[in-house]
Amino acid sequence: MADTQRTAIEAVVIERDLRFTFVDLCRVCAAEPSFIAALVEEGLLRPSGSGPDDWQFEGAALARARTARRLARDLQLGVDAVALVFELLDEIETLKTRLRRAGLL
Amino acid sequence: MEFRDYYATLGVARTAAPDEIKRAYRKLARKYHPDVSKEPDAEARFKEVAEANAVLSDPEKRAAYDDVGQRYGRRDEFQPPPDWNGGGFEFSGRDAGPGADMEFSDFFESLFGQRMRGGAAHGMGRATGRDHHARVVIELQDAYRGARKTLALRMPVVDAQGRVTLHERQLDVQIPAGVREGQHLRLAGQGSAGEGDTPAGDLYLEIAFQPHPHFRVDGRDVYMELPVAPWEAAIGAGVVAATPDGSVQLTIPAGSSPGRKLRLKGKGLPGDPPGDLYALVVITAPPADSPAAAEAYAALARAFPSFNPRRELGS
Fold first, then answer.
1. What are B223's strand-pairing partners?
2. Nearest to B131 among A28, A59, A100 (CB)
3. Helices (H) and strands (E) in chain A, counts
4. How far apart are CA B140 and CA A12, in angstroms?
5. Nearest Cα to B81, choosing from B119, B60, B59, B111?
6. Are B185 and B204 in contact (CB under 8 A)?
7. Complex-level ipTM
């Protein structure tokens, strides 16, 4: 196929355009269902719906779940410790944003 | 190929007990894990640490590694022994440990072979194609208007013999307008091919913006400095400013002080709702580089005999 004739692949913005079911999210994160369920239990992910069968996750859940999985595996943390790391990372991000807005960073 | 001294990487003795190795790994992982570390070379360092841990924390791999080190020396010019092929060892643990989605060194792979990387969740059964993840840097203008980008990606491909090689391929991607920094794109079916008739995996791209000398992005809002002359700030003016989406006409209100934020509603990153563009007033005075210019400043001084710019300092 000649380079000039290639058609560009359409991409979707996950955080804006996509939602995931429980099964989808486990697959794209390569995570055990029990791990994703534990993240929900801990409040790290907040799907809509009443139970695993009809959970709907926002697109942003993907990056969050993948980071959680890396932290749990690489730092050998429990889900509660992962939740604490997230709270601290979120706080650092908020503080950095305030510094940037104040022109100090 | 360079012999990798995994004991030195973790900072433990060759006689270290499993507990010491575990402690050393955890300490270094907390320091260098890319998700939490502030170290500049965190990702590369973490990869080394995860690789050392993958060998030394596994009794079988550690024994094989120690054996190779003793028999063939820990030289820089390491060549895997021709009869190595696992050295008669069989490795049972093939589960994805720390750093499982990273590429380890050639040295590691010459000894232990290509690892199962990433992969589907356990218990899924079928070997569907794997998803791939990469990062792409785009210009701010691309996020405003959308853009077609050609990406060169290196992707591991497994051949019929189970060997993994890196294939480079080029991909033309349509970047959607309105994408923001830190968001992710999904390109369906652009991951690894599946086995048989199972579907191919997807490709995920994390979006980063090339830093821009004039524009700073905060979520969907964009900030810029807008230099204005002292008289424009004092008595107001209509000026033309270059924005990421072309030039716009804007009004400097009379009495604008430095740091005043002028909001251009809806001129931030496009979306629903679109972001805003903020222009921060910066007052720029011309140099007094001619007699006429100097006289103009002198006239200004005469016109404001009681103006004291240092009043708030109490002087």
1. B216, B278
2. A28
3. 5, 4
4. 18
5. B111
6. yes
7. 0.81
